[in-house]
Amino acid sequence: MIIIGGGLAGLTAAIHLSRLDIQVILFEKEKYPHHKVCGEYLSKEVIPYLEFLGIEISSLKPATIDRLHFSTKEGKITSHELEMGGLGISRNTLDHYLFQQAKTANCEIIQDAVLNVNFQDDRFEVETASSGKFIADFVLGAFGKRSTLDKSLTREFISNKSGWLGIKAHYKNAAYPKDLVSLHNFNGGYCGLSATETGAINVCYLASYDSFKKYKDPEIFKNEVLMKNPKLAEFFSNSEMLFENELSIAQVNFDKKEQVHQHILMLGDAAGLIHPLCGNGMAMAIHSGKIASEILLEYFQKKQTDRREVENEYQNEWNRQFKHRMRTGRILQKILLNEGLAELSQNIISKFPILMPQIIKRTHGEPIHV
Ligand SMILES: Cc1cc2nc3c(=O)[nH]c(=O)nc-3n(C[C@H](O)[C@H](O)[C@H](O)COP(=O)(O)OP(=O)(O)OC[C@H]3O[C@@H](n4cnc5c(N)ncnc54)[C@H](O)[C@@H]3O)c2cc1C
After folding, report:
1. How far is the CA of 5 from the centre of ligand 1 (A)?
2. How do residues 178-231 score in pLDDT, each as one tens digit?
3. 154 CA from centroid of ligand 1 (Å)
4. Nearest CA to ligand 1 atom 45
5. Which end of the chain has the least Cβ crowding within 10 Å, N or C?
6. CATH architecture of 2-161+252-363
7. Ligand 1 nearest-atom number relative to CA 268
């Protein structure tokens, strides 16, 4: 069996399946460790499942986060307790750790890009950039929110233009509390701050092209737009950037995607990207790896189901777990970040802070026990 993409979704499925003696080859185009554009807030709902896999995130010494601040673009703050809470952990460390766990579990990991996948005569042929072709009975697509592979596979969403870009860097700021995730609005987007296992504060923001294109440079954009929010101004004035340059990704797209495409079971962002405001994409990626692994294990162990049933079961379980969260994420994006509605909706939240726990509940899952 082949997994394409070694982010959270792909590595989780690789560990789960390899630990139960399924032969897995995983392709990842990048070298580990590497930084990724991400808010790095991991919802605690996945901890019981990760422990079941023998993965002890606590050994990485993440920040424990149980408070949320939400500020309007004028810097008006509301404070909220996070009932379940989350962990602040850099993708650099987390993905690398899962990569090592997958290797220990005997998963074969090949550092190469997959160029195309063809399904014929009930099996897949996977074409790579420099390692040749591979044959597999199942393929899991865990290649993230946007990959050249989406083009080769002629996925519908790939031709749609997206109006968003994501930018991130780590900062040194001794005053920022380790137990706090804060979301700060600005004209054309929002910025999330939270501590990581190194003590560095991760700063990650999503901005519309329309707001960014006038400035083009993240440093100028930070000074001219983000720092108009007094809370962000206070943070940046007392911080030092630890990266040489910010990381950025373009074309962040929230369109609906297929969860099964050309018989490939899509995991994580390849199946659908929940709006980052919700802080649940990392947990959903891990959870989708679990769902696919369990269904495939049933197939391999009992041989009771055929391919069509595997695909239907995956689709149904994906919908049951994630469809409503994705819908809520889309609604939130429309009302909190839409130019006409942003001010009104942000002020409503600041006047009625009781709404926030409801929003969090609707965009997160229950703890995943196995
Ligand atoms: C701005 C922003 C902020 C976010 N903040 C948060 C947050 O705070 N909390 C949260 O829970 N979620 C957050 N998310 C969402 C979260 O980052 C994703 O949901 C999560 O990373 C999905 O994991 P994944 O494994 O599906 O994809 P990824 O982690 O993107 O992994 C995909 C992997 O596939 C590899 N790949 C791609 N194409 C190929 C190919 N052809 N061949 C081989 N390898 C390939 C890539 O190199 C990559 O390593 C945020 C997202 C954005 C955009």
Report:
1. 9
2. 999 999 999 999 999 999 999 999 999 999 999 999 998 999 999 999 999 999
3. 20
4. 5
5. C
6. 3-Layer(bba) Sandwich (3.50)
7. 26
Q: Identify whether the C-beta of residue 366 lies closer than 8 Å to the C-beta of residue 45.
A: yes
Q: 3-state DSSP call for residue 314?
A: helix
Residue with tokens 């701050």: 193
What CA–CA distance (Å, rounded) separates 195 from 105? 30
At 31 the three-state DSSP class reads coil
Q: Distance between CA atoms of 320 and 216, rounded to whole angstroms?
A: 41
Query: Distance (Å, rounded) from C-alpha 180 to C-alpha 170?
Result: 16
**Measured distance CA(99)–CA(218) in Å, rounded:** 31
pLDDT at 335 over 80: no
> Residue type at 6?
G
CA of 260 relative to ligand 1 center, distance in Å: 18
Q: Is the dihedral of CA 43, 197, 47, 261 positive or negative?
A: positive
pTM: 0.96
First-last CA distance in the chain: 23
Ligand 1 nearest-atom number relative to CA 206: 1
Q: Residue ranges of the domains in the chain?
A: 2-161+252-363
Q: Rg of the Cα trace of the chain? A: 20
Ligand 1: residues within 6 Å at CB? 4-10, 27-30, 36-42, 113-114, 142-144, 147-149, 166, 192, 204, 206, 252, 268-270, 276, 279-283, 285
Report the pLDDT averaged over residues 18-24. 96
